[in-house]
């Protein structure tokens, strides 16, 4: 149960679905409620599929390119720190590759659930590298199942938050969403730094 909660908390912090609410509302502006709910559903499904694939196949990709898990942890820690700093400084969407040009292009396409909402907004390099490291650290089947369950719980949470985007936006307001994003950003930054420190300690055997 501890592993489930730790995985859920880490993924939720890195993905930060609350920070995606303003972008979701902007990309679905003018869409009927049914269409918004459909987009929220498929965005969460895509997030789940991408993260599960990263969790189970990531190690194979690392072996193919000859990348060690500790180097991945450092790289992932840097990416996670970048996301956390983006949340703290208010440049989260730009750091996730969602600039005005991408948003304008998304407005012209029918399906935005995969990109930019799922990739790179939520299921980005930070969450992927986090799960690849977790797969390496938890070889037991029961632990893998708990992590997959945590991924599913995060995906359900993503759906509920995006589905309630209008209500959340009205309830918290722009300043409220920014404040929560800054708090989450601080936690994400701490997670990234911890990953880097742990990896350096292992590499240099301190």
From TrEMBL:
<keyword id="KW-0812">Transmembrane</keyword>
<keyword id="KW-0472">Membrane</keyword>
<dbReference type="Pfam" id="PF01914">
    <property type="entry name" value="MarC"/>
</dbReference>
<dbReference type="GO" id="GO:0005886">
    <property type="term" value="C:plasma membrane"/>
</dbReference>
<comment type="similarity">
    <text>Belongs to the UPF0056 (MarC) family.</text>
</comment>
<feature type="transmembrane region" description="Helical">
    <location>
        <begin position="112"/>
        <end position="133"/>
    </location>
</feature>
<protein>
    <recommendedName>
        <fullName>UPF0056 membrane protein</fullName>
    </recommendedName>
</protein>
<feature type="transmembrane region" description="Helical">
    <location>
        <begin position="71"/>
        <end position="92"/>
    </location>
</feature>
<dbReference type="InterPro" id="IPR002771">
    <property type="entry name" value="Multi_antbiot-R_MarC"/>
</dbReference>
<feature type="transmembrane region" description="Helical">
    <location>
        <begin position="183"/>
        <end position="204"/>
    </location>
</feature>
<feature type="transmembrane region" description="Helical">
    <location>
        <begin position="40"/>
        <end position="65"/>
    </location>
</feature>
<feature type="transmembrane region" description="Helical">
    <location>
        <begin position="6"/>
        <end position="28"/>
    </location>
</feature>
<feature type="transmembrane region" description="Helical">
    <location>
        <begin position="145"/>
        <end position="162"/>
    </location>
</feature>
<keyword id="KW-1003">Cell membrane</keyword>
<keyword id="KW-1133">Transmembrane helix</keyword>
């Amino acid at each position: 149960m501890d592993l489930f909660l730790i995985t859920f908390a880490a993924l939720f912090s890195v993905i930060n679905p609350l920070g995606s609410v303003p972008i979701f509302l902007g990309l679905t502006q003018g869409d009927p409620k049914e269409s918004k709910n459909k987009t929220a559903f498929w965005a969460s499904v895509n997030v789940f599929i991408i993260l599960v694939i990263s969790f189970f196949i990531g190690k194979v990709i690392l072996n193919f390119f000859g990348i060690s898990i500790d180097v991945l942890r450092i790289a992932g820690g840097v990416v996670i720190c970048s996301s956390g700093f983006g949340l703290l400084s208010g440049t989260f969407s730009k750091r996730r590759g969602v600039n005005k040009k991408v948003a304008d292009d998304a407005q012209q396409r029918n399906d935005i659930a995969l990109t930019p909402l799922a990739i790179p907004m939520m299921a980005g390099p930070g969450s992927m590298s986090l799960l690849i490291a977790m797969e390496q650290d938890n070889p037991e089947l029961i632990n893998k199942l708990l992590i997959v369950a945590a991924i599913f719980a995060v995906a359900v949470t993503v759906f509920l938050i995006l589905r309630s985007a209008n209500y959340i936006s009205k309830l918290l307001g722009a300043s409220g969403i920014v404040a929560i994003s800054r708090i989450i950003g601080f936690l994400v930054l701490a997670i990234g730094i911890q990953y880097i420190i742990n990896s350096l300690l292992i590499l240099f055997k301190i």
